Hints:
By secondary structure, this protein is α/β, with parallel strands linked by helices. Helices cover about 35% and strands about 25% of the residues.
Amino acid sequence: MTLLVKNEEEIIEQNIRFHHAMGVDGFIVALHNCEDRTEEILLKLQQEGINIKIIHRGGFKYQQKVWVNEMVHLAKRDCRATWVINADADEFYYSIYLDLKESIRRNTGNNALVVDSLFLFPDERADFLHNTHFVTRPFQRFEAEKLHIIDNLLYQDFIGSQGCTKVIHKTDGFLSVTPGNHDVKIKKRVIAHTADIRLYHYHIRNYRGWEEKIKRYVDTVFMSKNQGVHMQEMITLYKEGKLRKTFDEKYGTSVLTFLEEKGVVTLDPSVSNFLKYKNIE
Length: 281
């Protein structure tokens, strides 16, 4: 697994312990201008015997594609990895067999796999990894039109596929990832959509965490207009003083109740249960 992180002391240990327990053999972690305890935590995990290679990347430019490509080549050359999952610290890849290798084995014949994202519906709790509310069935467009919410900005992230599939892939024949790890360029590509692996995405954990995350990227220079689009939108809200109001409107109790009634948000304890099962806190 490759991880590109920036000040993720709140979640990095649980992420690595979770994926190590799910069968990941090793980790390459690129630290981008980290100023918190992230590296200290990684060194502690190294001392416990978890295979972690740490690299440092600086500068204000966020070169996600460049740095991930570098890590994939390192994974193949130094770690002899045959498959790679390119992830962020807030992404948890869950195998329905509790073994990512087994999920990959059952998809033989492919050199890339598309994985669906399930987004957390955040609240104010601090132990966000045990929040089990996820957007598991977004509205179809015809449903949103019938409910007259198709143009309501509060519900835009709950309509359609959410457009956030990710791709995991072999290292053999690897050429390049696309920004955000949504696709991969690879020789003789044979790609399939797998239901054996689900990505639980804690992109917004609670309001405090959301605000702190955005502050970390305020001075970041994104390499293109299309890179980090959602982060750029959130930075604008933060600068305009609208972040708290947006959070309350979009993730308030009334919205949650409505989405639960419509079956869009449901309780999915998969990650929480696995963390408890493996005594990861």
